[in-house]
C-alpha cells in the first residue's frame, strides 16, 4: 500500500476527528456515513497512483488495524458502563437480563439466519456460509456509539441504590472498608443504550467460537472430527479463560491504582489515564498466551477496573483517552473502507449477496432481537427497568455491523483457504455500508423520539431512573 495514502488517510482522519462531532451534532447523520463517503471520493483521486488500499490484498494490515480498534472500543465500552456486575452479588446479574437474552438468543439466531441464506441463496460452501454468519452476527462496539451509553458517571448523589434496590445511606457506607468495590452510581437510566452497549461489549468474543468453527470446517473436515473439542474448549474453555484473565488483570491494576500501599503506585491520585491502555494490552496479551479470548479479557478487565471506586473521576479520565484513540482508529478504518469500495472491493458482489446483506440488516437482526427482548421475565427474577414497545423495537433494530466483521473475515481468511473469499469480502463490505447508512441516519431521530416519550424522573430516594410511559 502506498505510503502517501497512509499519510493522507490518517491526516484526514485527525482533521475530521476535530471537526465532525460539532458539525454533525444537530443532524440526523452519523460521522461513519460521512467518512465512508469521503473515503469513496479519496479512492477516486488519480493522484494516489495505481496502488490502492484493499483489505483483500492487504489482509494482514487490515487484520491488525481492526483488531486494535475493536480492543480499544471494548476497553471504552467496559469503562463507560455504570451498571454493576459482580460475581458476589447475584442480583447484579439479574440487572443484565436483557444482555444475556441478546447474547443467548439474538446472536445464535443471527448466525444461523445469515449462514442458511449464505448457503441457500448465495450458494456458499458450509465453511464460507458459517464464516459469513459469524462475521456479521455481532453488534459492533466501534460503530454503535450513536446508540450506546456516553461514558462513566460521577455519582453525584450522596446515596445510591444497591443492586437489591435499597437506598445506600451513610450507615451502609460507614460499614464498608476504604477501597471496597462500590455499586454507585447504580444504574444506566436508558435501558436501550445499556442493552446495545453491553451486548456489543460481550458478543465480539462470543462470536469467535463460530469463526473458529468455520476455520475448522475448512481445514479439518466434517464436524464429527473436531466437534467435541470445539464444544469443550473453543466454545466454553476459551471463554472461561478470557473472563478469568480479564477479571484478574482488572483487580490487580485497580487495587494498585486506587489502594496501593506506596503513593507512587496510586496512579488514580495522579490522574494518569494511560493505565487504561496498559490494562488493555496486558489483558489481551495474557489471555491470548493462556489460550483464552483476548476480546473478552479486555472487556472484563475494563468492567473490573470500573467497579473499583465507581464514582471516582479517574474513570472519566481513562475513558477520555480510550475514546480519543478509538475515534482516530475508527475514522481511519472507515476512510480506508471507503477507498476500497471505489477500488474493486464490491466487484464480486452479486444480487444474492445484496439480498443476504439487506435481509440481515432489515429482517434477521430485527426479528432475532425482537424475540430476545420480548421474552417475559418473571418480575421476581429480574430487577431491570421494563422496556416499552418502542424501546424494544429500537433495541432489536440497532444491531450495527462494522469493524468487528472486517476483523473476523481478515483473521479467518488468514487461517484457512476459502474459495469464495472475494464474494465474502464484497458481501461483508456491502452489509457494513448498508448498516452504516441505515442505522446512522435512523439513530438520532429514533433515540430522540424515544427519549421524548419518557416522562421526567420523579424525585425521591428510591428513584433508579426515568419512569417509562406505556406498558412493558
UniProtKB/TrEMBL annotation:
Signal peptide: none annotated. One of its GO terms (molecular function) is antiporter activity. Residues 147-188 are annotated as: Disordered. It is a multi-pass membrane protein. One of its GO terms (cellular component) is plasma membrane. Keywords: Antiport, Ion transport, Membrane, Transmembrane, Transmembrane helix, Transport. One of its GO terms (biological process) is proton transmembrane transport. This is NhaP-type Na+/H+ or K+/H+ antiporter. It comes from Auraticoccus monumenti.
